[in-house]
Amino acid sequence: MHRHVSENVVRIIEKVWGSEEIVASNLNYNYSGKKMNLHKGGCCSTHFHRFKCETFYVLSGHMALQFWEPSGQRTTKILNEGNSLTIDPCTPHRFYGIDDVIFFECSTYDKPDDSFRIDQSSKPDKMPETMAEDLGEK
Questions:
Q1: Kind of pairing, strands 74-79 and 101-107?
Q2: What confidence tens digit (pLDDT) does each residue in 52-62 have?
């Protein structure tokens, strides 16, 4: 049996809310892996993917993850160190840094044309209003 090992080139992509470190991206085996650095107060865009399924695993910090069910029901969950959550394809979602957060995103292959943004990324002074409402903080 032929075995092959290849070294990955880690790419860092700066974002308004922090950065992504792409550590794995393999179309042939349909997987991707990213180390995400989310700044306190940073918020990614509300977006969804038609095909991509993603699992978030928090290494350090606290983040809020907001998502919408197919019924339209909006939910916000707090993810702490050691928590993990999977977002299925076609599920609108966004995350917000309650403090500085490091988390992993493990997913099916991350195709550049499979991200559909509903709003823009931001670095607000406080948690977005709908997240605060969901958590009873308003």
A1: unpaired
A2: 999 999 999 99
How far is CA 131 from each of CA 84, 93, 135, rounded to the nearest angstrom? 19, 11, 6
The separation between the first and the last C-alpha atoms of the chain, rounded to the nearest angstrom, is 60
**Which phi and psi (to 5°) does residue 119 adopt?**
-145, -175
Token pair belonging to 85: 């959550």
Instruction: Please name every residue paired with 38 in a beta bridge, in sequence order, or none if there are none.
Output: 18, 101
Dump pLDDT digits (tens) for 30-59: 999 999 999 999 999 999 999 999 999 999
Q: Which SS3 state, helix, strand or coil, does residue 113 take?
A: helix
Domains of the chain: 11-134 (2.60.120.10)
What's the whole-model pTM score? 0.89
What are the angstrom distances between the C-alpha of 9 and each of 21, 27, 30, 44?
10, 15, 17, 25
- Dihedral of CA atoms 98, 100, 123, 128 in degrees, nearest 10, equals -10
